[in-house]
Automatic annotation (TrEMBL):
This is Subtelomeric hrmA-associated cluster protein AFUB-079030/YDR124W-like helical bundle domain-containing protein. Residues 42-159 form the Subtelomeric hrmA-associated cluster protein AFUB-079030/YDR124W-like helical bundle domain. InterPro entries: AFUB_07903/YDR124W-like_hel, AFUB_079030/YDR124W-like.
Length: 268
C-alpha cells in the first residue's frame, strides 16, 4: 500500500478525535454540533454515503465551484484535451452516466456524482489527502456561507482521517479509481520493483490513464513538481475512455510547462 511520507503531517481543518490504533475517528456533526459522529476506516460505504449527504446540503453554486476546482487540479489542460459537449472525448474521471457538459449546466445530483468520482476513491493513483486540501483551498475561501465552509472542512477532515487510518492498518485500496499517470505504449517487457514504483510516482500531480487493446505492458511517464521525470511500468491497467493521443498530448503540454518554469529567474 502506498501513502506519501507527509500524510501524517497534514493539518486537519476541522476538529477530529483520531484513534489510529483502533482505526476510528470522531467529529462533531457539521449540521448539528451537539451530535458526535463516529467513523471506522473499514466502513467505506458508510463514509461515502456521508460524503454524499454533506455535499447534498450545499447549494449548486458551491458544488459548481468544487467541480471546477477539482477539474483544474487533476487536468490543467482539460479545455484543450476534453472540450465540453464532445461525447467522443470524455475524461475517465467523468462519470459515465452523467452528460459531459459545463458543470453549471448540470443538475445537483450530476455535480455530486462528478465530485464523488474524483474525490473519494482512495487508491494507489488517486488524490491524496494533501491533494484534496490543496485542490479545494480556493473553494473554502469563496463558500457562499460560513456553514458551507464548515461542511467542506468536515469533508476534508474525514478524508484526511480515513487515509491516516488506512495507512496505519494497511487496508486494501479501492480498485475503482479514475486517477493515474498518463500511459505511453512500450514494447519493453518487465516491471519495476514495488519500492521503485512507489518512489517514482511519489508526490506527483495525477493525470489519467487509458486501456489500449492488445498492449500488455505500458509505462507511466510523468513530471514531478520539482521538474524531475519519473517512469513506472505497469501490466494491469484497467481504465478506458481516453485515447493514447490525448495522453501523449497531455504529457507533452506538462513537459513544456515544466521547461518554461525552469527558464524563469526563480527556477533552479
Amino acid at each position: 500500500m502506498y501513502l506519501p511520507d507527509n500524510i501524517f503531517h497534514i493539518q486537519i481543518p476541522y476538529p477530529s478525535d483520531l484513534d489510529i490504533e483502533r482505526g476510528l475517528w470522531i467529529i462533531k456533526d457539521p449540521l448539528n454540533s451537539t451530535q458526535l459522529l463516529i467513523f471506522r476506516c473499514h466502513e467505506s460505504d458508510r463514509i461515502r454515503s456521508w460524503y454524499r449527504k454533506m455535499l447534498s446540503t450545499l447549494v449548486e453554486s458551491d458544488l459548481c465551484r468544487i467541480v471546477g476546482a477539482l477539474e483544474r487540479y487533476v487536468e490543467p489542460h482539460r479545455a484543450e484535451l476534453y472540450p465540453y459537449d464532445n461525447d467522443q472525448r470524455i475524461p475517465s474521471w467523468w462519470p459515465r452516466h452523467i452528460s459531459y457538459k459545463i458543470p453549471s449546466r448540470l443538475q445537483k445530483k450530476g455535480m455530486i456524482a462528478v465530485i464523488a468520482r474524483i474525490l473519494f476513491p482512495i487508491c494507489p493513483h488517486g488524490l491524496r489527502a494533501k491533494d484534496v486540501a490543496l485542490a479545494l483551498q480556493p473553494v473554502r475561501k469563496n463558500c457562499s456561507t460560513r456553514a458551507a465552509e464548515k461542511i467542506l472542512d468536515a469533508i476534508i477532515s474525514v478524508r484526511v482521517s480515513e487515509e491516516r487510518c488506512l495507512g496505519r492498518h494497511f487496508q486494501p485500496l479501492s480498485n475503482e479509481c479514475p486517477l493515474a499517470a498518463s500511459p505511453i505504449r512500450t514494447n519493453q517487457p518487465g516491471a519495476a520493483s514495488m519500492a521503485e514504483r512507489h518512489n517514482r510516482i511519489h508526490r506527483r500531480r495525477p493525470v489519467f490513464n487509458v486501456n489500449i487493446p492488445g498492449v500488455v505492458h505500458m509505462v507511466f511517464f510523468g513530471v514531478y513538481e520539482s521538474g524531475r521525470f519519473f517512469r513506472y511500468v505497469s501490466t494491469s491497467l484497467n481504465k478506458r475512455n481516453i485515447r493514447l493521443s490525448d495522453a501523449e498530448k497531455s504529457f507533452e503540454l506538462e513537459v513544456k510547462r515544466v521547461e518554461e518554469g525552469r527558464k524563469t529567474p526563480s527556477s533552479r
